[in-house]
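During the no-cost extension, the postdoctoral fellow (Dr. R.K.) reprocessed legacy sequence entries with the updated structure-token encoder. One reprocessed record is reproduced below for audit purposes.
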Amino acid sequence: NTVMAAQMTDAHRRFLQILMSNGITEGSEARKLHQHCCETDKVYYAHDKLDDFISTINSHLQPLFMQIRKGLSEDDGRAHYAVVNLAETEVTKMASDYTEIELELFRKTMDLIILSENGFASSTDILNLADQLKTKKMKKKEAEQVLKAFVEDKWLSEKNGEYTLHTRCIIEMEQYILSNYQDVARKCNICHSLAIQSQVCESCGIGMHLPCVRKYFRAQTEPRCPKCNEFWSCDIP
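Re-encoded structure tokens follow.
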């Protein structure tokens, strides 16, 4: 009962190439890109068929252990697409771009972010780590440059000196994070994808993304936990 995968066309190949070079693409951009590729390569275009278009590409990527994945921004809940390498379990994706010491700083930063209450780590705390790296110590100035690179390359994002994982990082490293931080990494109770910036129920400990919290409680007069029904004590964003 094997379904023959739909054929890859030049439009599919063009879409994939651009997606890979972008690193991450916001949903509305991906829809524009879909149209652009179909029109450029004279391939049938249907505006509501982006998901089908992507699953055709994914069926051809499967033997290469790659996949276009969709994820939501933790800030505003908007969809994003990124190409994920399923064969890379470690933070190996980054290993070709960064040195050993830079990767160590990244891993330690990731620890801080994931183990924090709210999914953020302050630049002060991150820069303090730079003195304690095993590979070799890193000067603060140097560490600041490396953090800048992580932000430019969309592994981290930064707001007022506070760092969190970029949507791209969450999409690409979800499996790595869930398996390496089993005790603390939470999936959002609403959308079931990894939640870094989240609110947590004080009674039962489930977590929810901020956009999911907003949506979920919008219709309720009194916010109660979707799991244990206790009063939701966090401020609704």
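Residues 91-172 form a domain with the Arc Repressor Mutant, subunit A fold (CATH 1.10.10.10). The two ends are 48 Å apart (CA to CA). The remaining legacy entries will be reprocessed before the final report is submitted.
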